[in-house]
Amino acid sequence: MADLFIDGQWVAGAKGLTREIYCPADGSLVGVVDEATRQDTELAIRAARLAFDDGRWSTVSATERGAFLNRVADLLERDSEVIATAEARDTGKRIIEARYDVGDIVSSFRWFAGLANTNQGRIVEPGATGVFSRVAYEPVGVCGLITPWNYPLLQAAWKVAPALAAGNTFVIKPSELTPHTTIRLMKVLAEAGLPDGVANLVLGAGAEAGAPLSDHPDVDMVSFTGGVITGRRIMAAAAGTVKKVALELGGKNPNIIFADADLDAAIDNAATAIFLHSGQVCSAGARLIVEESIHDLVVDRVVAIAESIRLGGPFDPDAESGALISSDHRAKVDAYVQRGVAEGAVLRCGGKAPDGAEFADGYYYLPTVLDGCNTAMSCVQDESFGPVLTVETFSDEAEAIALGNDTIYGLAGAVWTNDLNRAQRVANALRHGTIWINDYHPYRPSAEWGGFKQSGVGRELGIAGFAEYVEPKHIYQNLSPAPSGWFAGAESPDA
Ligand code: NAD
User: Fold this and answer.
1) What confidence score (pLDDT) does residue 365 get?
2) What residues are labeled active site?
3) In 3D, which of 374, 388, 392, 414 has the Cα closest to residue 303?
């Protein structure tokens, strides 16, 4: 067994450590993988550094790099069922959702394949005669990529594809809970012909295997997706070597419904916004902010949907949602709900694990609605990352906007109304990186994704998601060199 991929070789960790991976839906053993220590990660960084410095990937033409990413997309499509199955078993998500993920992963590779060749640089206005001045776009160098467990390969794709498109080398560390699809991706990259050392994989715990990716001097950039507390830690660790930092962190996302909205659509989507993937979505619509006059109608119907959601394992054809990722995470979600209730929230449904022998071995939690909430409550301010919806009310547009912005986060939000001028006003006023109008959740690889405020630094996807992996360099050439004459002593002795 050898699950670390360093310098083109599959190797075990130097200390021979391993980790068992269990399916959160039923506790079954999915596999045993090697675990890296700091020393292994340093070896991987060394390989990525050498591969970057000798130009074995950065000097490959941009057209070739784009073609390579399309080959990767083809291979991922070929392997899609294997990948979806592995993702479903690691995360406990339904296979149908894992299949959607693979489609999105393939689209991400194709999007960045298309961008690879757009990085031509530009000639700039010289400012003087006899000058040739241009801006070149170069790869950043060695990238440390750290990913979470909720969309393991999708989050990896959002980093790996632009990093390779721009000519970087990298070391990736997926969540220690969900390593299998990232292992698979490395196999695909090798099969597609990536030179050794360009892509490196380490597995294991963040503080041990992941930490060098933010503090090692040979890493030029760290791109992290995960929780805000880890993000702050990574940013602080990166400060020691002033590396470039890209952070995609949590969210506490407002879903605002005005009384004039198409309520059938708004209510149905309010449930999807939060209960999709059991709320383990960074952009989950976890805060329902509803106009007072329709509060009872909306909340009663959302509660009815929540109570009807069928939980089950990845391969249960009747299941509509799955388990939480771990026992620890479920305990955190439950503590969050109990805190909300202690603060005065009204528990309308859920608030506990489901009964029934079929759920006994998994980490299930019932879809939960907390009504009567306000922004002073921790359940409104803190990310639960579980199937928990809080409900607040507003009386006018200004209050809806103020509530929607009353958060340290700024990842995503939605507004539901049939007044299209109001829709645009609210969308403009909300300080979040993605705003949906009369919809929730769709995203496009061609549009930037990321957060305002403490939801992150930088963007993934879109044009900016490529620019993160690029360093602009200004090259100025004087075509007729001459003494500057700035200092008198610089004059030629013959003058
Ligand atoms: P996490 O912060 O616990 O872990 C994320 C990754 O960081 C894991 O690989 C972990 O091993 C690693 N890590 C932990 N400590 C580290 C350290 N000191 N140095 C280096 N690496 C370290 O997050 P999680 O629980 O895996 O994921 C859930 C969080 O991710 C949620 O807050 C969610 O909102 C966020 N998320 C954000 C987005 C986005 O696009 N903004 C997408 C998905 C998830």
Assistant:
1) 98
2) 248, 282
3) 388
pLDDT category of residue 287 using cuts at 50, 70 and 90: very high
What CA–CA distance (Å, rounded) separates 436 from 439? 5
The pLDDT, as a whole number, for residue 1 is: 65
Ligand 1 lining (C-beta closer than 6 Å): 146-150, 155, 173-176, 205-207, 210-211, 214, 225-227, 230, 233-234, 248-251, 282, 383, 385, 411, 451, 456
pLDDT confidence bin for 126, thresholds 50/70/90 = confident
Closest ligand 1 atom, residue 329 Cα:
25
Residue 491 confidence (pLDDT) above 70: no
Closest Cα to atom 16 of ligand 1 = 206
Mean pLDDT, the chain, rounded, equals 97
Mean pLDDT of 377-396: 98
Distance between Cα 354 and ligand 1 center (Å): 27
Report percent pLDDT > 70 for the chain.
99
